[in-house]
């Protein structure tokens, strides 16, 4: 079995280990750590890289070996405590061995700590938003939003072992060996023919034959010294990203900042919207985002004010929905734009206003929207707003309603809302 060993110096930005193959192999453990990191972080560093800890037992290499088979009885030297048929008690904790460092202390023995693997910001975001997409994104008249797709871009002399093209590499190796040994093999054939003639000719001096044989051996060694494959032969599949024109889209972010939204609830809403913002900017280009904050009155704000303003007040949810409709009608015609919206609230609303919200959604927003998601962040029982939105789900397939109780629910709910639909 041939082994390919890449001894070249790493290009800039390349790790000494095969990162992509490693991430693919242990994606389950890495994605679990990534999802847990989302809930631990503050809103200001949610897009940073992450250190992933993987138990040593999960990175062990599988091996094949010949089993002994049959029933065997052994007497080990030094045994002075046990007889045949005795049951051996399980060793108590505190001994040496492999583990993550838990258990009682011991004054002897060695162990192995968990394997620590650090992923970059781009790898972190890629894993965070894998298999997510804006639902029901369709072509519109104006094409400005751009998605990126990975495509095969021929072959390259530099790459990681996971992308080696075996056929191309062997073809290059074969061509190199032909070029380097063709002349030597031709001369070798001539020397062998000459040796055969001399051996069949009576009276030939032994010294001449010995010298000819030495030339043949030297030439054969030179031919054999040509390596089967060299670093110059390696060819790698080249992958690149290109822009894939798609329809332009706008995402409306509606957040309740009324007095009933305490600081913990607002922080959870901010985490959700930061995840949404990172997902949109990581996946799509030229996608517009409109931020709307509301209490009794709604106001369009910029990104900084949306996340950090301290303004508060009562609660009239329909004010945000009406403002969204006005902005959409004025700046984002439905025949030219894909309309999306994400609303976060604790569900507290004037009882008389909840039916108004349902009416605005049913008559103005849902008919022109591709997807409307509502996230209710509360530990209390659901109120009238949740029930009105749930009723809309029976008549409209483009509205989704999810409930967040605590920080750990944010990422699973986010993935559920924006998971890629089967085509």
TrEMBL record:
Stretches for region Disordered: 70-112
InterPro entries, alphabetized: UPF0229
Domain of life: Bacteria
Gly residues compositional bias, start-end: 93-102
HAMAP family: UPF0229 (MF_01232)
Record family assignment: Belongs to the UPF0229 family.
The protein, known as: UPF0229 protein SJ2017_2258
